[in-house]
């Protein structure tokens, strides 16, 4: 609709805030559904995919995966391991972490520490076996999904704590992130 196009009778004009009759402050009557006032420019779709297929870097649906393999030693107490599996670029991300090992342990915890600004939670995963003969072998612990809205490349540093390890070996922390916008 142009700035001087007729809407029925009499003529209506766009005054910068709405469609009005010349010399009037009243918007025109319109049958439902009313068109938006002011008319909005047509915007194309957001670049990216919504089918689960891989998207190009910077597009919605971009999927990143980072992993860190850590050594776990026999220790009747707690051992703390630091891992830095992934740096996410600026954007809005859904993030999830998982830790798996074939090591025998009583309990395992991992979390973002320190929690970077813009990340909604610490991605903590925890599992414990507390019994007279606690051993857990071949286990995977998954964190709840969190959101991150970051404006600079952001490192996701994790602290992994393993309690009462009776068999040495390795574990793998895997962090995945999908760009939401």
Please explain how this structure is put together.
Strands 3, 5, 8, 9 and 11 form a five-stranded antiparallel sheet that branches. Strands 4-10-6-7 form a four-stranded antiparallel sheet, with no helix packed on it. The protein starts with 12 loop residues before the first strand and ends with a strand. The chain contains no helices and eleven strands. It has strands at about 15, 20, 65-70, 75-90, 90-100, 105-110, 125-130, 140, 145-150, 155-165, 170-180. Residues about 1-10 have low confidence and may be disordered. A hairpin with a 4-residue loop joins β1 and β2. It folds into two domains: about 1-45, no CATH class; about 65-180, Jelly Rolls. It is mainly beta and about 180 residues long.
Topology:
Blueprint: E1 13-14, E2 19-20, E3 63-72, E4 75-88, E5 91-101, E6 107-112, E7 125-128, E8 139-142, E9 146-150, E10 154-165, E11 169-179
Antiparallel strand pairs: 1-2, 3-11, 4-10, 5-8, 5-9, 5-11, 6-7, 6-10
């Amino acid at each position: 609709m142009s700035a001087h196009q007729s809407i029925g009778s009499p003529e209506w004009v766009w005054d910068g805030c709405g469609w009005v009759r010349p010399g009037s402050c009243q918007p025109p009557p319109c049958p439902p559904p009313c068109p938006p006032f002011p008319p909005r420019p047509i915007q194309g779709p957001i670049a990216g995919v919504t089918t689960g297929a891989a998207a190009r870097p910077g597009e919605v649906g971009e999927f990143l995966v980072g992993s860190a393999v850590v050594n776990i030693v026999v220790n009747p107490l707690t051992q703390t391991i630091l891992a830095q599996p992934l740096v996410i670029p600026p954007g809005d991300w859904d993030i999830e972490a998982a830790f798996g090992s074939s090591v025998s342990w009583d309990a395992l915890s991992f979390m973002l520490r320190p929690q970077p600004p813009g990340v909604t939670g610490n991605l903590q995963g925890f599992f414990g076996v507390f019994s007279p003969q606690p051993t857990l072998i071949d286990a995977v612990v998954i964190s709840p999904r969190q959101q991150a809205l970051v404006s600079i490349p952001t490192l996701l540093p994790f602290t992994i704590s393993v309690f009462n390890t009776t068999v040495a070996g390795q574990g793998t922390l895997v962090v995945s992130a999908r760009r939401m916008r």
